[in-house]
Amino acid sequence: MFGLERKDTTLFLVVIAMTMLAPFLLNPFPQGSAMAQFNAGYPDLMQRFVIFGIFAIGFNILFGLTGYLSFGHAAFLGVGSYAAVWMFKLLSYNIVPALILSVIVASLFALVIGYVSLRRSGIYFSILTLAFAQMSFALAYSVFTPLTNGETGLQVYTSDPQYLLGNGPNVTHLFGLEMRSTTTLHLGNWSFDFGVGYYFCAIIMLISFYVAIRIFRSPFGMMLRAIKSNQTRMNYTGLNKRPYTLAAFVISGMYAGLAGGLLACMDPLAGAERMQWTASGEVVIMTILGGAGTLIGPILGAGFIKYFENIFSKINDGVLHSWFSWLPDGIENFVVKVLAPFFGEGWSLSMGLMFMLVVIFLPGGLVEGGRRIGAMFGRGKADPAPAPKPAE
Amino acid sequence: MDALILQFLNGLDKGSAYALIALGLTLIFGTLGVVNFAHGALFMIGAFCAVTLSKIFALSHTTIDPEKLDFLGNPAKIQSPYLVEWFGPNVGAAMIDWAVPLAILFAIPVMIAIGFIMERGLIKHFYKRPHADQILVTFGLAIVLQEVIKYFYGANPIPTPAPEMFRGSIDFGVLIGFDPNAIIYPAWRLVYFLFSCLIIAAVFAFLQFTTFGMVVRAGMADRETVGILGIDIDKRFTIMFGIAAAVAGLAGVMYTPINSPNYHMGMDFLVLSFVVVVVGGMGSLPGAVLSGFLLGIVQSFASMNEVKSLLPGIDQIIIYLIAIIVILTRPRGLMGRKGVMEE
What we know:
The structure holds 2 protein chains of 2 kinds. By secondary structure, chain A is mainly alpha-helical. Chain A contains 17 helices and 6 strands. In chain A, a hairpin with a 2-residue loop joins strand 2 and strand 3 (177-178). In chain A, helix 3 (43-66) crosses helix 13. Chain A starts with 5 loop residues before the first helix and ends in a 16-residue tail after the last helix. Chain B is mainly α. In chain B, helix 4 (99-121) packs antiparallel against helix 10, helix 7 runs antiparallel to helix 10 and helix 11 crosses helix 12. The longest helix of chain B has 31 residues, at 2-32. The chains are: A mainly alpha, B mainly alpha. The A-B interface holds A 67, 69, 116, 119-124, 126-128, 130-132, 134-135, 138-139, 141-143, 231, 277-278, 281, 284-285, 288, 341, 346, 348-349, 351-353, 355-356, 359-360, 363, 389-392 and B 35, 122, 125, 130-133, 135-137, 139-141, 143-144, 147-148, 150-151, 267, 271, 274-275, 278, 282, 312-313, 316-317, 320-321, 323-324, 327-328, 331, 341, 343.
């Protein structure tokens, strides 16, 4: 089906089912129960899952296939957001031109940066992309303030021209379908929110995921993998690797621009902090955590990190106390004191630790972890795929 | 002319910090071949050693003096630090005042210990892994270290003043024959520059004039042969890792009066110091020092108003611009050796 192999078709169908049913799957606990805080089924958060999923899928096309570790991908995300907000300011709140422009701008940006950065590989490539991203970040704050509105961030004002606005709605919409609108379904104690914005992002994510599968399985994808496994041999065979790596770089920049544009479509704001190098580090963490070089890994990683960021960070001392209230008082206080640094404000500590553990023990990320567990119970295949190794 | 000299001096103190961090990074890269993204975190931990020591020194107990009243009319509370009680008002107060320089003595063993633990516990297992893995694991470690510091010290910068006698500015212009008040320069920044020169000289002398340093240099050139000669080179490289951590830590200790330390100062410096290392040439110690000072000075010249009016925003990006040009035209950096980290 869809021109895919059977295994990929199954995977694709599973992902479709998961994203379409996400409002149910992510809301397993009834409202008002003690576990309700673990529910992630509200549109705002689900949108972020899929948008950062797109970002990570794109990053994986570059890092997972060619092994080039870019530390400046957030620049494309930020540029995409700026482009989208400019479209809202100039034309109307319709998101189609905004998304188109954000992809185009990000791809041009990626073409320039990629053309220069890909002249070097290894750590020099990482430093070059990092330098370009930091430059864009610094310039967005200083020289380009007319374009970026500096520290305030770019947003739409009523005084903006919006030439095509007419009688259209005053919020982001797709030909009249407002992104913000939600329908709520009540079933007993449960309530499920279906947001238009979420489903729109989810469909875009599925399309990008499908494209990514096709790229992975195409001759072009094979070529990228060959570059990762042995560049010297590629050179001796007489193949010029530059057009391939540049194409991969531009494609992953377009994915990042699309993600940035979607972020702006859900909330018409754009700020320079989206371009900072720590934001680039975040997408690296997502991809590695999920499993670089695998199809589903980046989406899992993005969902995992965003879930942690939003749900883990809400668990404060009071919640911890209520969990361990069955313990004797002294032990309860001790346990809470030990655990408190890892929850609430300290969620990034847990994230850093988890990331380190994954890099040390599970270079293939969550996907490899799942495969190993599967193999342990004898269901999986006896020979797990060798851990993907980024090229030098 | 005096404006130029002032910018030059401004560049020196920033350059000293870059040079010290880059020196440590290069020591680790040159000896162990590890790309250490946690080096900025070591710089930050050094700064927090100074914060910790000045907090310990300031520990005091409160007594209520019924004779005096504070401005609200309540009996005044008098804070009397233990140090003053133990060592008398002169020595005790001087120790509290000199907490930051004294923190050097405190930081050296702490940083060397942290370096040992890091190398033996984590980095050792990554020698054979690709550079990308090393970057990732040390990046994770940097996040963890910075979050631990944030947990214990909070998110706000903690002001840690220099000793009383260095707090003001000195009229540097008079010393070199300018009119008074032409070049006013904060005294502590001059101390920082001299201190970093001292540390750099000490590291180079250690490598150049001791047997230990000779073996380490031999190991940097050809690790395998040194190993075959029956020398336990790994042990010496571990010690070098400790020394590199100590260099970063001392850079952090002395930097606290210039910028109040906060938990993300390490990340702020990390990117720049990597750029410095790459510009100087991976694995070249003199290159790291040279490009540290060079980039510091260039950056401070770029932030002059005359330059900024000509090329707006140049002060923000000049370092990255130089890095891009250097990587593209001289991939080995200014003083890089042949065969180090080349494709």
